[in-house]
Amino acid sequence: MQNRQPLKTYYQVLGLEPEVSSLEIKRAYRSLVKSHHPDVEYSEQSHLERCRATEYMMSLNEAYETLIDKSKRAAYDYLIGAN
Question: Is 24 exposed, middle or buried (0-12, 13-18, 19+ CB in 10 A)?
Answer without folding.
Answer: middle
